[in-house]
Amino acid sequence: MANRKVTLVRRCKTPDGWQRYSVVIGKNGRVKPGYVKVAGREIEYPVGYYEIRKYVGTKLVYLNAGENAADALQELQKETNLVAAKHILAEVPGVQLVEEPGRLPLAKQLRRFLDATFDRGSTVAADVYRLGCEEFLRVIGKTFVDQVTAEDILIFQKALRKRGIADRTIHNRHMSVIAFLRFCGVDTKKLAPRAPKFEKTMPQIFEDADLRVFFASLKNPYHRLVFELLLKTGIRDQEAMHIEWTDISTSAKTLHLRAKPKYGFSLKDSEQRAMPLTDELMELLANYRKDHPKDNLILGGENDRPPTKLLRLLKQCVRRAGLNCGICDACIARKECERWFLHRFRATYCTKLLRSGLDLRTVQQMMGHADMASTMRYLRPAENAETQTKVNSISWL
Question: Which of 71, 184, 200, 257 is 20 to 30 A from 101 via CA?
Fold first, then answer.
């Protein structure tokens, strides 16, 4: 007899990589968001998603149930009812449940697509794909791959615009859906010959005056280390979360960026690189190391685990420094200024490298950009003092 048990689990990112654990159900019968049971203890792993664990015959399978705890619990109830109905019908003479063999279920294909992305080490890409594709499936409400039409693509884009999603984000989520449908064998050139357009914006950088005020307000040594690392190396926030003390070469004064499989972390484009460190940053690192000799991760903090809330920390420090603009939507709603975000440190770093006179090829390598065009986006000649002087010297009349 086939196993009828259907359970809800969470596939989450842990210090030991991606793992599946049982979810935590509260006394109110609801799933406790982000929490799982590990060896009888409740542990929070905020990065992850829910899955339905069930058997198809004697084969164990996992169905993606999304990131929302309440929605995942509803999916569990639906799947439990479906399995129960199948077994009841199987015992009724003359009644047969038609499964429509040969058709590809979208939910199952999405799970395979995400698993394939994880297996090749693209954990960040898998998170991006899941966000866009799960929303696409919720919006269109289709079950099988062959039901998807060109109109569904337009309906999805319209739903995103209705929610106020930025054009660039709509483009990115559209490309995630296209990658998924291509994986399913769909001729995407016929289905969606054109991607939604968006206005390409210039990278946003911090003004020197704001940075001086910001760093002068940092009294906590850990806070200063976090943001000086981001500003003076230009590394991505995920890279910063996973750097270890063994990645620092004190003799060469470099930071070696590499994948960390034990944390489920891989580098973008899977390419290692070495970053030069300033004397001031080397001194800051050395002083911090004296007080934290047993830590493995540089920014691991008290638990010595990858810090997943660096953005929240930045918003708090900016608010304490009095640097909230006070007029953006985020300032008004949450007192968290939208002008301050982690990637802006990276943009500032790249811009300063180019303004210092470093050649494009060197800056490209230091930034870990896959092509020269990505680096050239940070050239800002209009804000260069030399350009301003030359413009002022022109006789216009």
Answer: 71
